[in-house]
Structures are given as C-alpha cells and as structure tokens.
C-alpha cells in the first residue's frame, strides 16, 4: 500500500512539474510574440529607429569631413525614419557582425547594402529592394591579364568578409574556374587600396563604389568586362515583425511617390534608380 502511495505521489509530482514547464513555455512564447508585435510601437514611443550600417563603404555609407555618417544608405535611413514619424539613430559596425547584431536586438533594422538572398531570408526579413547594383571584376588600371572571373585561376582575389560577393566567389566562381586564393577584408576601402598597391590581383565590387575611391583616394583601378551579376539590397529586420516591415515598406513607397527616393539616388550616383 505504501509503495502504491509513493508511486501515486511521484506521478502527481511529475505531472505538476510538466504542467508548470508547459505553462512557463507558453508564457514565454506569448511574451516573445507580444515583443515582436510591439517592436514598431516601441520605436514610436522612443521616437527613433536604430539603424545598423558599416560606415566604411563610400558612397553608400561613410564618415564625412564632419565625422558624421553620410552617403546613400544614410540618406535612405533618414528618409525612411522621417516617413515613419521618428528619427534615425545610425550605429556603425563591421559588416560581418551586422546581422548577428540585428538578431541580438542591437539594431531595429540594417540599411547597409545587405543583398537579398534566399539564404538570408531564412534568418531575417527584407523590405522591398531599395537599390540595384551591378557587380564587376575590378583590377589595377595597368592590368592587362584579367578580363573576367575566368582569369582568376592562380590569382589572389580580394572581397568583403561576410558579403554576398564572398559567397559568390566561394560557391560559384571557385568551383567553376579552379584554384585561386580568396583574401577577405573588413571594409571595401582596404581591399581597393591593397589592389592599388598590388597586394591582390583583383576584386569584385559594385561599380558605384569605385568612383569616390578613384576621385578622392586616387586609386588607380578600373572595372573590366560586363557585369558578372546584378544584386538588389533591402532593408533587413529581425524575423517575426510584420508591423515593422509593413511600416518600412509603406515609408519607402511614400518616398517613391514624393520623389525623394529618385532624388537621393541621383544625388549619389548621377542616374535615376532602375527599380
């Protein structure tokens, strides 16, 4: 009888613990859902949206003479925030750590040439594309040996760490072309400076990024051949925030309607947007 009582008591205790754990998980799940739903509300209450950005990728984002974040991405961020009725607080960091920072809640969104890819869509959500970029092979001005990715074999090729261009080199170009060395960089300026001094043989980059480096830094580089690919970048946010994503998309649509989007694009690139 005593053993039977013990077994009954033990069973009741186990069921109680399971119920408490389940209730706790349910509560946590509700809390997480509420937090996701309230992300836009919190941004409005704070009066600001925190935007993650490299700050080292002219003319997209860089420090100007006043040591302020400037560039195409910065202007887009400020305009998006304005249409949402808040201020843009821009926080810089290395590109390779931006998505992790977004996941940890360091930023509300990323506006830093984050290319939209199927792989990234599994872990983060994207707004409608806000820019289309043509990517070319870039070499020293006097280079006559490299005209396309087919000429990369046996060469040292520089690329930004954690970028879509790095994934493209490793997953598509390297298996097709054959062995070449990939040298990664924390920022594009350093990769182009190393190309200029001959530390690497080539890189691949958005053609819009070359103009300020040539004009302001005096680097002797050139884009060769036809674009090897075209990418579109979007505003990235943490998954599970549909209200915030909708607000960002509506703000961007308002920019297209009032002409501010085209104005920003022409200001930095001298041409109308192609989206």
Task: Please provide a written account of the structure.
The chain has 275 residues and is an alpha/beta fold. The relative contact order is 0.16. The protein is globular. Strand 3 (61-63) and strand 4 (69-70) form a beta hairpin. Helix 3 (72-84) runs antiparallel to helix 10. It is built from 10 helices and 13 strands. The strands form 4 sheets. The protein has a 5-stranded mixed sheet with strand order 10-9-11-8-12, with helices on both faces. Strands 5-1-6 form a 3-stranded parallel sheet. Strands 2-3-4 form a 3-stranded antiparallel sheet.
**Overall body shape:** globular
Q: Whole-number average pLDDT?
A: 89
Unreliable stretches, pLDDT < 50, 5 or more residues?
1-36
Number of helices: 10
Percent range for helical residues? 40-55%
What's the SSE pattern? HHEEEEHEHEHEEEHEHEHEEHH
Largest sheet: 5 strands, mixed
The strand line-up of the biggest sheet is: 10-9-11-8-12
Please give the alpha-carbon distance between the first and last residues: 79 Å
Strand content: 15-25%
